[in-house]
Design a protein that fits this description.
Radius of gyration: 28 Å
Number of domains: 3
Strand content: 15-25%
Strand order of the largest sheet: 4-3-2-1-5
Helix content: 55-70%
Distance between the termini: 40 Å
Structural class: alpha+beta
Shape: elongated
Number of helices: 8
Order of helices and strands: HHHHHEEEEHEEHEEH
Length: 290
């Protein structure tokens, strides 16, 4: 488990630094041509109109400040994150994101102030922008809020096996908008991307990272007699064969009556194998609701 966390931390740090490096490249590509044109005008190579020159001055200031903020974050984020050395991997990711957001927000406020926007107007403008953005990107904000809840409340951790709706797998990454699940640990080349907002809308089952409990739901056919002795014998056969203790009970819902089988497994492969054996044994002796 410790190895998984170390690998996850390294992966998340690389992804985060890649994002900051990308921002530096983008702002540099925008900044250098504008600066070159401005200097060309200053040295008499070009003759630009005064309004265009004013726009260039503003762009140099704005893009330069954003570029400086990106460079500052790139070289200070790791040191800032290391201040919180005792927190978990997920919380370090949250701290890094929040740190970058604060630096960029302060930079934007400074740019607006340099434009001559007064404090009262600046507050009103920021309020209108925030309201408009919140309405336009409400789904994104919902995923971002869900990501915040996942990192702070910790309904699961990296390395846990979880199930949401009909999707299940091993958590390999908790991103800002998506959680990556590996539904076949034997094959490392594929994964499932789950939007974070789904974790606020649907029940979640966390089976843990080892010795996790699995849960098999078997819908029972309606209108047919139910032989509990057949169910018991079928599950006992699987339990003895696989040397795995199985527990079961009947439950009901508006959709009908169903059988719930629970147990524990040492690995994802063992869990899938036992699930297959249980379902095969039940299908042979217990009517199934199609």
């Amino acid at each position: 488990m410790q190895k998984i966390k170390v690998q996850a931390a390294a992966l998340q740090e690389k992804m985060k630094m890649h994002g900051f490096n990308k921002a530096i490249i983008i702002f540099s590509v925008l900044f250098l041509p504008v600066l070159a044109l401005y200097l060309a005008e200053r040295w008499g190579v070009l003759d630009l109109p005064v309004p265009v020159l004013s726009v260039f001055r503003f762009l140099i200031t704005a893009i330069g400040l954003l570029l400086g903020a990106s460079v500052f974050i790139r070289f200070t984020a790791k040191a800032f994150r290391n201040i919180f050395s005792e927190v978990d991997v997920e919380e370090k990711l949250l701290i890094t994101k929040a740190y970058g957001f604060v630096i960029y927000s302060l930079t934007v406020v400074l740019i607006l102030y340099l434009m001559g926007v007064g404090i009262s107007n600046l507050t009103l403008l920021l309020g209108l922008i925030t309201t408009g953005l919140a309405f336009a990107v409400r789904d994104i904000l919902m995923s971002y809020f869900a990501w915040f809840m996942l990192l702070t409340k910790k309904p699961f951790r990296i390395g846990d096996y979880i199930q949401i709706k009909e999707i299940e797998g091993k958590v390999i990454h908790i991103g800002t908008f998506y959680v990556l699940l590996d539904d076949s640990p034997e094959n490392r080349d594929d994964f499932i991307r789950i939007p974070n907002r789904l974790f606020l809308e649907h029940p979640l089952f966390n089976f843990g990272s080892r010795d996790f409990t699995y849960r098999i739901i078997y819908p029972l056919a309606e209108g047919k007699s139910l032989d509990l002795d057949k169910i018991r014998k079928a599950l006992e056969t699987v339990s003895v064969k696989e040397n795995n203790r199985l527990e079961w009970h009947l439950d009901s819902s508006p959709q009908g009556l169903f059988l719930v089988v629970t147990g524990k497994a040492q690995s994802f492969r063992e869990r899938n194998h036992i699930r297959t054996q249980v379902l095969s044994a039940l299908v042979e002796k217990v009517p199934f609701k199609s």
